[in-house]
Amino acid sequence: MSFSWAKAYEPKNPFMRWLDERLPLPRLAYGAIGGGYPVPRNLNYFWNFGVLAGIFLTIQIVTGIVLAMHYYATTDGAFTSVNQLIMRDVNAGWLLRYAHMNGASFFFIVTYIHIFRGLFYGSYKAPRELVWMLGLVIYFLMMATAFMGYVLPWGQMSYWGAQVITGFFSAFPLVGEPLRVWLLGGYAPDEAALTRFFSLHYLLPFVIAAVVILHIWALHIPGSGNPTGVDVKTERDTLPFHPFYTAKDGWFAATVLLVYAIVTYFAPNYLGHPDNYIQANPLATPAHIVPEWYFWPFYAILRSFTVDFILPAKLWGVLAMFASILLLFFLPWLDRSPVRSGSYRPVFKRFFWLLVVDVIILGYIGGAPINWWRVALGQAAAAYYFLHFLVILPLVSAFETPLPLPSSISESVLHGEAEEAAPVGQKKPRRGATATAG
Amino acid sequence: MRFILGFIGALFAAVLLISFFSNLATYFQSPPAPLASDEFHKEPKEIHFASDGPFGHFDKRQLQRGFQVYSEVCSACHSLKMVSFRDLKELGYNEAEIKKIASDWKTQVPSINPDTGEPATRKALPSDNFPAPFPNEVAARAANNNALPPDLSLITKAREGGAAYVYSLITGYADQAGYKNDKGEELLKAFPDAKTPQGLHFNPYFANLNVAMPPPLVSNGQVTYAPGNPAPTVDQMARDVAAFLVWTAEPNLERRHAAGIAVAIFLLVASILGYFAYRQIWYEAKRAVRVTGALDPENQAKSRRAKAKQGVAG
After folding, report:
1. Weakly modelled stretches of chain A, pLDDT under 70
2. Structural domain boundaries enclosing A153
3. Which residues in chain A are contacts of B265 at CB distance < 8 A?
4. Active-site residue A220, yes or no?
5. CB-based contact B13 A387, cutoff 8 Å
6. Are residues A143 and A276 in the same domain?
7. Is A210 found in the same domain as A331?
8. What value of ipTM does the predicted structure carry?
9. In a domain, A21, yes or no
10. Are residues A316 and A285 located together in one domain of the fold?
């Protein structure tokens, strides 16, 4: 309950009253995603992606539970159970599997947009630092879950991806190799690794769901941010979540699901790799081992370290790859600007778009076969990534002069129509009065 | 803390720059030698199948012809272990025909002698998957010059280019002597070492240009099609078997397309209705949000005018 004017839940029918008195679940839902949660009225469509991430998490859990009913976590049976049993013999198994495969990709697409939304509009700044950090925890868990899920079909990329990724740990001196063997339960990915990945792949989504609850809880203390970055001051600045944002999220979700359906039904393997339709073979290394697209930027950073400078190149790469995610946890303190929204930060804005281009370049480099100019480009892009967050951002935030901020959300959206901006549902603005102000 | 983090960032960037310059130095000092497989490898040919596109469906007669090519040619070496005889129903064969195809299949199904328990074989049943031509990998390699013929069930999903790759590979064998790429370079002049080794076959559509599989379709009419079908040229047979292998890899393609169209229409209608519901709900609030962004020059002019007006009035 973030604002004093947030409406309290009033049960309308006797059953809900009965339930609410004993277990205030309806009250909880009303306050979290109902009419009892006031949301800034000026949110743009970039604010829809959190809900979309929740939708894709749900799709993944539901399809995943059913797929797990038909999946065999054995090195002999995994590939066949996915490609023969599920894809051919299980009723609508092909749909479940393609929906799950592409659901993972779409989960990452909406999450990346959600993260970049946060980066641009300063959603990581006080008082929402914990919202940001919990979000990063979710992202980290998502990556672990997605990686282990990709191993389960036991195709060539599954196997060699597992080999490469668990190989990261062996880069650490002394503890590295024993740690890798302990994680895999053997010297190479095998049945022990497959069964534990399956077990964890089933567990982690529920951990994600739990952290999502914390993420939303922490969000609802200060309430949602908004494109101006100006704090909510009065009731005029907000609209109740329901029906306003449920309606906005609803139609937009249907549109994104339409895109998801088109990919799932008409190009289900577009985002995948053909080699994963070849059964895992520890004796045949694929020509290009690449992870799934959503790991490409990090894979590019990993591969960019090619010189043993004091430490071995591999260790540099692994450290840099972990650092590239960990540094995001420090963002609330790296960016000192009191202005949240990038719209009012002319210098920051330019660097932000440079970062977007940089990450896209890293993504391209991470997915493409190696040659000399790609390696060079990837190295420059990786260097910019670190400089952006750890050097440029703190400097920009110290020296930049932001543009004047609107004094309130309603001013930014109303422009002299302030008289009219009565809280919706309280005072109906007269139609036709708009012209007088302008 | 910012200084420590800034230092870490600068350190990573510095190591990357060292890597960057050493990478460039290596390249310019000793540029990597070009590889024959980079310069002479060809992308799959353009080819279209009835199953392409969102409305694509299988051409059953073509699939039957493709199945005939598979069973008379490919199946000598390649297994099809994820497909069962009963699946042929989708190609338009009736149950009696499927029963006959199964029991006549050249390889029998491993079994045991019901009296002694000794290993034995029996005739295939419609419920069996296609029996593999070789009992195990060692036998397959022994019979094929140490190469392992891949299982074909998923081949069109397991190769870049899919069915077009299969078609291109089958029809793409060439004489290596005097072979030129599109740029007019002659392979054996540019790369004298790239001569195809004994026992392999030159094929520019194969990743490393030399494939162990001998040309499978060598002469027109190698397979006799039933009357009413196109003439069994090498090109036609290759097309047909590629189309058949699309089906083996994706037998639910037609169902997927049909369901996809229904789901897409449903979601499109839901989006449109949802959008109008959203407009309706936001009607009042929308007028306030219609113009967003205090930085919009138009809006700034608006607020300036409003202020000026107030000034005049005051």
Report:
1. 1-2, 413-438
2. 31-228+236-289
3. none
4. yes
5. yes
6. yes
7. no
8. 0.89
9. no
10. no
Query: Is B137 buried (19+), middle (13-18) or exposed (0-12) by CB count in 10 A?
Result: exposed
Selected for mutation to probe chain B from A307, A407, A409, A410 (highest B CB count within 10 Å) is A307
Identify whether residues A281 and A318 lie together within a single domain: no
Cα separation of A241 and B254, whole Å?
Answer: 42
Return the DSSP state at B213: S
Give me the pLDDT at residue B30, please: 87
- Please indicate, yes or no, if residue A433 is contained in any of the structural domains: no
Task: Evaluate whether residue A19 is within a structural domain.
Answer: no
* B236-261 tens-digit pLDDT: 999 999 999 999 999 999 999 999 99
Residue A272 to residue A157: CA distance in whole angstroms: 10
Overall number of domains in chain A: 2
Please report which helix (H) or strand (E) contains residue B120, including its range: strand B119-122
All structural domains of chain B: 38-83+129-251 (1.10.760.10), 256-308 (no CATH)
Backbone phi, psi, residue A291, to 5°? -75, 180
CA distance A152 to A147: 9
* Beta-strand pair B201-202/B210-211: antiparallel
The 3-class secondary structure across A223-250, one letter per residue, is CCCCCCCCCCCCHHHEEEHHHHHHHHHH
Q: What is the mean pLDDT of residues B63-68?
A: 97
Q: Are B264 and A261 in contact (CB under 8 A)?
A: yes
The pTM (predicted TM-score) of the whole model is 0.91
Residues A205 and A101 in one domain: yes
Instruction: Examine the domain organization and report whether A278 and A315 are in the same domain.
Output: no
Q: Across the interface, which of A275, A343, A417 has its CB nearest the CB of B295? A: A343
Q: Is A410 a catalytic residue?
A: no
Query: Do A259 and A115 belong together in one domain?
Result: yes
Look at chain A and count its residues: 438
DSSP codes of every residue in B230-261 = PP--HHHHHHHHHHHHHHHH-TTHHHHHHHHH
Would you state the pLDDT for residue A74? 96
What integer pLDDT is reported at residue B185 of this predicted model? 85
Cβ contact A403–B295 (<8 Å): yes
Assign residue A263 the CATH number of its domain.
1.20.810.10
The DSSP code sequence of A380-415 is: HHHHHHHHIIIIIHHHHHHH--PPPPPSSHHHHHHS
Look at residue B206 in the predicted model and tell me its pLDDT: 94
